[in-house]
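User: Can you write out an input/output pair for a complex, sequences first and structure second?

Assistant: Here is one pair. Inputs:
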Amino acid sequence: MSNALSAADLVPGEPALDEPPRASSWLRYAALKAGGAVISLVMVVLLGFFAFRILPGDPVRSLAEGRRVSAEQMELLREQLGFNDPLLTQFLRYLADLAQGRLGYSYTYSEPVLNLILDRLGPTLLLTGTAALISVVLGLWLGQRAAWHRGSLFDKTQTGLALVFWSVPTFWLGLILLLVFGGGLHWFPTGGLVTAGTTATGLPLLWDVARHMVLPVVTMVAVVYAQYLMVMRASLLEEMTSDYLQTARAKGLREDLVRRRHAVPNALLPTVTLIFLTLGGLVGGAVTVETVFSWPGLGLLTFQALSAPDFPLLQGTFVVFSSIVIVMNFLADLLYRFLDPRLRAA
Amino acid sequence: MSTSTGSAGTRRVNVAAARRRQALADGWKEFARNRAGLAGLIILLAVIALAAVIPLFAPASVLDVTQVTAGRNEPPSLANPLGTDPAGRSVLALLIWGARISLVVGFAATLVSMVIGTVMGMAAGHFTGVTQAVLMRLIDFFLVVPGLVLAIVLSSIIGPGIATIVVAIGVTSWAGTARLVRSQTLTVEARPYIERAWALGASDAHVIGRHVLPAVMPLVLANTTLTVGSAIIAESTLAFLGLGDPSSVSWGGMLKSALDTGAATGGYWWYVLPPGLAIVLVVLSFTLVGRALESVINPTLRGR
């Protein structure tokens, strides 16, 4: 596969007469995908604004709920938060703020939303990144093995297990681990990013974080790996009927090489887009896992914003979460074009 | 069949009906051959039956915290086979009552999702030009955007409740169906009989309603079964995050109060395990039935 990639890269473009030169078609593809991503980002920004203003429900009343707030105070609050201005004025102000990187001001933390989000971004990327990496490797490996030995005991147990894990709500698995490790065994810490009040730095700090990551990561991986397994299995099964595998066997390749060099690389291709499409689901998992394990990330921040409720904060986390996922999917589109020699040459 | 008295026209209709019945019977035979799917179907029917008759055995008053007789957080006993919750209510009764909300919300949200997905998918596959471009962008957007976060935003604005959850899940989960329906629509519309219909002067509505819709329905049905499972998970997640109706009992709501009251860290396993196991059992059953249905509809999947 890597040979094929570099070989096609080195061959200078020899465009056929009726085809545009390759560089321009690549650019056009990238521009098309970038345009799509930009439109999606614009939609996130619009949705982030209008959902909070047009849908039924009064942010100020929800804010004042359960507290003794007089009508005058609520009116003052409305005035301060700018809810009394015309919708267009509010929208323009929102756009101007966004252009300068301002995401509003959190009611509950009395701090700019952007600061709160930047503080929490690192832990979330660490948690979801680690979990995604482990689940992709685990799921793809188990999936290709199950497909290659289709109908075997391995295939049946792994597929069955994947279906069960796929049916498990993430937060419940987290609660179970909390029950086992918080109530009974005390092998791993059950909450937070580091031990409270720790002064450790350097390696001891890394070790502390790693120990705190175990349970949240296990929870996310268990629920997420199953879909990669199923996708990889289906994809390889599709490939396994192809004639070129017969050719590879006919020229005397060992079965293992047929799988590793011929079938698996081709089966991997369609999984790339799917892996990136599941990122949105991963983010959803982060919200509940971080809530269960008090992991100080964006997911927990989302939960705190919705429990308050703190609408500017919720709007901010929605915009940031969605933007991350949209940008990642755009990169996946580019990556796919690069990985698939057929598309690259087209 | 009244072949002796009917005209040629009705006979043709009856032949079509007989063929359809035959296809259904064949489909059922194929479905029944899939033991996992059959097991899932039996479990689902049992759960639905149980949820339907529970008011006869445990009236709604057992859920009233002011009328409890048992102590709080009691471990399982003969009187309360699954123990009691932090308010002293029977966990078993809560569990079966909770099935009603989970199933109703799961089905309702799926219905919303399926209707939006099918309409959008057929329109995106049928129309061309600007309409298609706009619809495709919309589908792509909802495919990529983190569904749970959007659902959280929607339901926290509209305010907690069952209807909110149904809308939030339905509105955020249709894109996958739409993409599936669109590709099926493209396949169907490439067939010669559609060209024939166009040549005979069929309208868009005729082609979509009489030709495309019946052709995509089996696919949508199999997809529906799979979607109910994810909708139930989404419902429990939203309820767990506190966006459910606080006055009604649901599996997600039970788990929320388990976390809030420290039942998990306190070791009250009888309040943490049953609701989750119930979700897993029901979602798994829907998944198995959905996969079995898929293999009935798509013969190339058989034996996989």
